[in-house]
Write a structure and sequence with these properties.
By secondary structure, the protein is of the alpha/beta class. The chain has 4 domains: 148 residues, 3-Layer(aba) Sandwich (Alpha-D-Glucose-1,6-Bisphosphate, Chain A, domain 3), CATH 3.40.120; 83 residues, Alpha-D-Glucose-1,6-Bisphosphate, subunit A, domain 3 (Alpha-D-Glucose-1,6-Bisphosphate, Chain A, domain 3, 3-Layer(aba) Sandwich), CATH 3.40.120; 85 residues, Alpha-D-Glucose-1,6-Bisphosphate, subunit A, domain 3 (Alpha-D-Glucose-1,6-Bisphosphate, Chain A, domain 3); 72 residues, TATA-Binding Protein (2-Layer Sandwich), CATH 3.30.310. It has 15 helices and 18 strands. The chain has a 6-stranded mixed sheet with strand order 1-5-4-2-3-6, with helices on both faces. A 5-stranded mixed sheet has the order 8-7-9-10-11, with helices on both faces. It has a 3-stranded antiparallel sheet with strand order 16-18-17. α1 crosses α2, α1 crosses α4 and α14 runs antiparallel to α15.
Length: 451
Amino acid sequence: MGKIFGTDGIRCLVNEEPLSAETTLKISKTVGYLLKSNQKKNSRVIICKDTRLSGYLYEPLITAGFISMGMEVILVGPLPTPAVPHLMNTLRADIGVMITASHNTYEYNGLKFFNSDGYKISSILEKKIENIVLNKKKYAKIINSNSNTGKAIRLEDASGRYSEFLKSKLDKKIKQKKLKIVLDCGNGATYEIAPNIFWELGHEVISINDKPNGKNINYNCGAVNTNALSKKVVDERADIGFAFDGDGDRLIIVDEKGNEIDGDKIIALFAKHLIKFNKSKLKYPIVTTVMSNIGLENYILNKFKVNLKRSSVGDINVIKEMQKYNSLLGGEQSGHIILSDYSKTGDGILAALKVTEIISKLKKSTSTIFNLYENSPQIKINIPYKKISKNTINFIKNINKKKLKDKNMRLLIRLSGTEPIIRILVEGNDLSKVNTTAKNIEKNIRTKLGK
């Protein structure tokens, strides 16, 4: 085990390293040691989780680690990841922990850590944690010499606090149009809070995949698979469908015709209706990742004269760039939408609420308001693997370095930071050429993997 953190916190198969029971306890104690307040009174930790079965394993382990360091732990139960920074602020916590593997299925779990400012911890701090956890001598110094341990309490009204926070971000000047909405909760952390919020706001709500059993989270549903949502929206003649991932920080939309609307198109809508009318923000760039479609970049530049900055994949990288440029808006094609005036991280429910505001204001159909630009042809291929050699990694790096003959085409091949998958992206003006190039690259990589 040479590395603990990946693209977005820690993530792996349950009971495997770095999330064995023993290592998880070490991580918890180390984080507490490094982030604990210097105040004499006990520091405070918020621990949240999604609905996967292994949350019952990791919640007590992490709690025990922090308590052993003399810290007060507040357990808030299953809630979306973006609830953590908000609750940290209102409860004046020093550390926030989200137990989740985000969009992965139940066999995986992970940890996302937040600092006292409510932002995900930096890569520098991640390395400090790794250096201690992976070094027996350094870890041996992580002790609490005080005989007084901390304690844990469960906050019963955490869901209500977060719900009221979300509703407070709505523009009271806009009269909400009563919509027929289908919500796909992905059997994850939004299963209860999302339907309640939209119902309380007067919408007609139809919920699917809202009965988590610990094993059905993200399984052919939610933001990772909108087939069921598309069908339900059309069958119910709904105005719109919202799909969330397991920890509720992603949003993918389905229009009234059943068409999927990804994060790029959602960002475009917000660019038009949040930035267009806030001229003081026009000078700041919008931030997306290397995965975003060139069609979005051209739309932003040509329509608003606003630059689009691209970060590495991962919402933490988007947020870093947004902080650097003081950006109002950022996100990922996968559905992370960051509205920095309202939240410190991607928030699927918040983004969905803001979309309903725009629909209410324009009084137009969902398909109409998202008809903003044409995507360039883009092919994405995922290749799973069990083991990967340095030779194959170097082979992938060399493909990325090669210049394509077609100047209008770009490619990106990368190893996923959340699961053992090689991701291929090819984009260009000619769909046939894009498809051929992608298939050739896939064939070469599979040959290298021995598949």
